[in-house]
Amino acid sequence: FFFFCLLMFKRKEPPPPNPKDVIKYQKREMRKNQREMDREILRLQREEQKLQMEIKNLAKRGRDAEARRMAKELVRLRQQQDKLRQTKTTLQCVSNRATAAGATVSVSKAMAGATRAMTAANAQVDMNSIQKTAMQFQQQSEYMEMADEMLDDMFDEDEDDEETDSVLQSVFDDIGLDLAGQMKSVPQNQLPQRSTETELTPNTEDAELNNLIAQLM
Predict the structure, then answer these.
(1) How many structural domains does the chain have?
(2) Angle between helices 19-60 and 64-123 (to 10 degrees)
(3) pLDDT tens across 151-194, in order?
(4) Using 50, 70 and 90 to split pLDDT, how confident is the model at 210?
């Protein structure tokens, strides 16, 4: 029971910090430090103005030794301001690098997520099935193209026949004939022909009669 209680109340290790949260916190702290430096620079500038006025007053009164000491203090204040400005610039550079690092982390996570998604998708893909489907698609496409060409040729022939009939009908209309009647009564490869029967003359008819009588006798 004692060990069970220890296990129950044992402190859990905190999860690892999120890089984005860490970067956000550090940037917030750096901005805070920069604001403090700005306030310190303003304070030093006010001190500098006071020292300048005191140095002028001492110089007017001929107190050169005190004016010299104040001048040294003025130089020291200006040096402090320069150092604070340099430190502020350094913090700004660090903040920019932290922003870039955060962007790198975001891109890295995005790439990792995309890689996992692509890996899962590719695991579901059967390359042999895709290749087979592509071949079938190409084959069916070729069949469809062949069928379209055959239909186009057939319709072209029908259109040619219709145009031919139209031309013939126009010609027959000019000469007073009916194309439909001609096509039904006469084969297409044969033109209407005139009758060449020879009329029987009286002499021919008499000769045939005499011939028939001779056979009967």
Answers:
(1) 2
(2) 170
(3) 777 666 555 566 666 766 676 666 655 545 555 444 545 444 44
(4) low
The residue-averaged pLDDT of 117-139 equals 84
Tokens for 43?
């304070």
User: Is 55 within a domain?
Assistant: yes
Please give the residue range of the domain that contains residue 174.
130-186
| pLDDT score of 93 more than 50 | yes
Residues 6+ apart with CB under 8 A from 66: 58
Which residues lie closer than 8 Å to 194 by C-beta, 6 or more apart?
Answer: none
Say if residue 72 is in the same domain as residue 169: no
- For the segment 24-41, the average pLDDT, to the nearest whole number, is 88
Find the length of the chain.
217
Residue 179 confidence (pLDDT): 47
Closest among 145, 190, 182 to 165, alpha carbons compared: 182
Segments of the chain assigned E as strands: none
SS percent in the chain: helix, strand, coil, step 5 = 85, 0, 15
Distance between CA 44 and CA 74 in Å, rounded?
10
In contact, 18 and 68? CB cutoff 8 Å: no
Residue 4's pLDDT is 47
User: How far apart (Å, rounded) are the C-alpha atoms in residues 89 and 80?
Assistant: 14
Q: Could you give the CA distance from residue 181 to residue 16 in angstroms, rounded to a whole number?
A: 101
- Amino acid identity at 203: N
Measured distance CA(22)–CA(106) in Å, rounded: 13
Q: Are residues 67 and 108 in the same domain?
A: yes
